């Protein structure tokens, strides 16, 4: 019938055209008409006459379908520079407007002729479900009570990480995500429905979402019965109260929905800062998720107390906090971040368990960096991402070229990942020697990782190691480094049986469940004496002084491996770490070597620390020695070992062997 309709209309229109006019079919039911040397009024009159004639033809022939069409008219002059596609687009826009007007007119005409009241109504239940899902922020659920099969909306499946939209025994599946304090009420309410003791319920409970956060939900469901009076369908809505109440359930702070609302309602200039707790997942790993939740609650309350005069604090997803403040002076913003940074450096504990925190931060200014919530949030997240990539977390203010740099950053991350997947292509190790103080006897080397990708020049470990730690790719790379280092040590032992190898290990590696087992198996694989291996951990990593960190270090020392604290003195917790942690070696940070000739503090600090370490049976390495004058002063403090460019630069394998042979001859 559709083909007959198109053919009838096309034939009739063609009969009314002049020889100069063009009439052709574009596709489907769309045609193109080109009228030559005519006015728009004449053409409108001509087309309307055709429509009237077609309506008469329908009645005369008693046709079972309407003969009609919509059109859009666009005037083209001889000096027009538009392409054919552009001309058709303009005519199509005119047709769309005409169609809207015509449909409304037809609906009003039908209303005059026919009563709007109908006795029957039919619809597609699947399309109804899809329309409802797309029309509400609530989650919709449907249960076929005959076979106990539930269907949930895609948004709920994603939010709570369900295995599928359709589940059997969903109460049990969802029940595992319900807060322990709410589980009885949740299960009991569902059981009342299942037993037929009630045909509706309204119950509130907390459920664990995909971000391991408990959110308050309200479930309102109702049972429908079949013709035999048996329960057939149980359906309803589940409301995320966090979205409705604009409060975060865990911290009591305003949530991201309230932040969005306030940004959209704020007319004047303001600033938005987003804070992310650096490596927060380690706190959950070291203790447990409940402990981590309480840490977030404490941090949220402390931030609000700290900034109450200057800003409003919001709890965002996972371990992120948002701060909105009206004072957009750059110095004020930096002052606020300095307050936050100072707070992070305080000693923190909960239930007598100590933890450390550091904040990455990104900041945007409105209207300079955006006018809408989505634009400001996106740009703030870009700035935050750059803060995460820094060796030390700090505040990054958004500027336009960061968007371009983000592309570069993503390409850099991808190149690192691809090289790791390609059997660690472009990665290599160099080895910096360490010597005994005064005698300058070679005692070992430190393995240092290098990455030389042809498309990314001069990317040092201070840049690529934090990126790999953030992505988790430091795990496979760290294992490769350890394997390659022991292979090299095995070769060195042939020339010097007591030579040592120092290997840097990331805090992320230390948290791996099988890390100690990997170290033990690799030592056994290459027949390396454990006492000739030194694992170097940064002070920041060791400062995560929870039970698991201490336990890992003790397990490593039980194997016979020595533990060194790198960058000692750089952080705020150095002295307490000397007291509490099971360590063997301290490496005094190179920043204390610089200007030691004229910097009284650096000289006094180094001398005192070396004496203190020796009193508690710790060996001391001073690294970063670059001049003869620095070496002469440092050796008066009697450290155990020295390391730096003056005594020996990082070298390739062949050069390291030559150095071992030379030192053997010297000795």
Describe this structure in words.
The structure is a single chain. This protein is α/β, with parallel strands linked by helices and 667 residues long. The chain contains 24 helices and 24 strands. Strands 17-18-19-20-21-22-23-24 form an eight-stranded mixed beta barrel, surrounded by four helices. Helix 16 packs parallel to helix 18. The chain is elongated, with a radius of gyration of 37 Å. The N and C termini lie far apart (103 Å).
N-end to C-end Cα span: 103 Å
Q: Give the overall shape.
A: elongated
Strand order of the largest sheet: 17-18-19-20-21-22-23-24
Tell me the major beta sheet: 8 strands, mixed, barrel
List keywords for this structure.
alpha/beta, 24 helices, 667 residues
SSE layout and pairings?
Elements (H helix, E strand, L loop, with lengths): L1 H14 L6 E6 L2 E5 L5 H22 L22 H30 L11 H11 L3 E6 L4 E4 L1 H6 L6 E3 L1 H6 L7 H12 L5 E9 L5 E12 L5 E10 H5 L8 E2 H10 L4 E8 L3 H6 L2 H19 L4 E4 L4 E6 L4 H15 L3 E3 L2 E3 L3 E8 L6 H16 L6 E3 L3 H21 L5 E10 L5 E10 L9 H11 L2 H20 L6 E5 L2 H4 L4 H12 L6 E6 H5 L3 H13 L2 E7 L5 H7 L4 E4 L11 H16 L3 E4 L5 H8 L5 E2 L10 H14 L1
Parallel strand pairs: 9-11, 15-16, 18-19, 19-20, 20-21, 21-22, 22-23, 23-24
Antiparallel strand pairs: 1-2, 3-4, 3-8, 4-5, 6-7, 7-8, 10-12, 10-15, 11-12, 13-14, 17-18, 17-24
Helix pairs in contact: 16-18
């Amino acid at each position: 019938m559709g083909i007959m309709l198109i053919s009838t209309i096309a034939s009739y229109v063609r009969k009314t055209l002049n020889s100069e006019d063009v009439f052709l079919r574009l596709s489907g039911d769309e045609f193109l008409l080109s009228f030559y040397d005519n006015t728009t009024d004449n053409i409108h009159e001509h087309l309307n006459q055709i429509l009237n004639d077609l309506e008469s033809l329908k009645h005369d022939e008693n046709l079972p379908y309407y003969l009609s069409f919509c059109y859009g008219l666009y005037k083209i002059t001889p000096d027009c520079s538009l392409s054919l596609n552009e001309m058709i687009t303009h005519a199509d826009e005119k047709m769309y407007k005409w169609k809207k007007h015509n449909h409304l007119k037809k609906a009003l005409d039908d209303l005059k002729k026919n009563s709007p009241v109908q006795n029957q109504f039919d619809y597609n239940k699947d399309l109804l479900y899809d329309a409802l899902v797309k029309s509400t922020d609530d989650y919709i659920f449907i249960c076929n009570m005959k076979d106990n099969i539930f269907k949930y909306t895609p948004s709920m499946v994603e939010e709570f990480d369900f295995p599928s939209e359709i589940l059997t025994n969903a109460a049990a599946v969802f029940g595992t995500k319900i807060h322990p304090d709410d589980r009885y009420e949740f299960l009991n309410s569902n059981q009342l429905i299942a037993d037929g003791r009630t045909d509706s319920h309204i119950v509130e409970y907390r459920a664990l979402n995909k971000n391991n956060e408990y959110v308050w939900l309200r479930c309102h469901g109702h049972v429908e019965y079949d013709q035999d009076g048996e329960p057939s369908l149980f359906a309803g809505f589940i409301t995320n109260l966090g979205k409705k109440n604009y409060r975060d359930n865990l911290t009591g702070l305003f949530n991201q929905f309230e932040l969005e609302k306030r940004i959209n309602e704020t007319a004047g200039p303001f600033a938005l800062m987003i804070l992310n707790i650096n490596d927060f997942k380690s706190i959950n790993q070291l203790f447990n998720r409940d402990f981590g939740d309480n840490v977030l609650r404490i941090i949220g309350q402390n931030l609000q107390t700290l900034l109450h005069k200057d800003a409003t604090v919001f709890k965002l997803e996972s371990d992120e906090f948002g701060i909105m403040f009206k004072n957009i002076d750059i110095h004020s913003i930096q002052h606020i971040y300095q307050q936050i940074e100072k707070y992070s450096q305080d000693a923190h504990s909960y239930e007598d368990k100590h933890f450390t925190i550091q904040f990455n931060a990104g900041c945007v200014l409105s209207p300079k960096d955006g006018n809408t919530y989505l634009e400001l949030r996106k740009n703030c997240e870009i700035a935050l991402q750059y803060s995460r990539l820094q060796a030390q977390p700090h505040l990054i203010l958004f500027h336009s070229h960061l968007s371009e740099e983000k592309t570069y950053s993503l390409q850099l991350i991808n190149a690192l990942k691809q090289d790791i997947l390609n059997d660690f292509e472009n990665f290599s190790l160099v080895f910096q020697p360490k010597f005994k103080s005064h005698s300058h006897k070679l005692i070992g080397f430190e393995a240092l990782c290098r990455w030389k990708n042809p498309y990314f020049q001069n990317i040092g470990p201070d840049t690529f190691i934090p990126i790999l730690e953030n992505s988790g790719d430091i795990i496979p790379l760290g294992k490769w480094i350890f394997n390659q280092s022991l292979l090299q040590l095995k070769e060195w032992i042939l020339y010097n049986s007591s030579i040592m190898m120092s290997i840097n290990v990331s805090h992320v590696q230390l948290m791996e469940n099988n890390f100690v087992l990997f170290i033990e198996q690799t030592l056994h694989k290459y027949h390396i004496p454990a006492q000739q291996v030194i694992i170097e951990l940064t002070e920041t990593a060791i400062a995560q002084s929870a039970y698991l960190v201490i336990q890992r270090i003790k397990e490593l020392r039980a194997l016979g491996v020595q533990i060194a604290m790198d960058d000692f003195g750089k952080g705020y917790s150095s002295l307490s770490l000397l007291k509490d942690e099971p360590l063997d070696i301290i490496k005094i940070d190179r920043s204390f070597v610089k200007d030691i000739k004229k910097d009284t503090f650096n000289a006094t600090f180094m001398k005192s620390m070396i004496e203190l370490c020796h009193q508690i049976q710790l060996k001391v390495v001073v690294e970063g020695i670059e001049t003869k004058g620095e070496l002469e002063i440092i050796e008066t403090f009697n450290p155990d070992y020295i390391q730096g460019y003056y005594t020996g630069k990082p070298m390739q394998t062949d050069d390291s062997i030559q150095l071992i042979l030379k030192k053997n001859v010297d000795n």
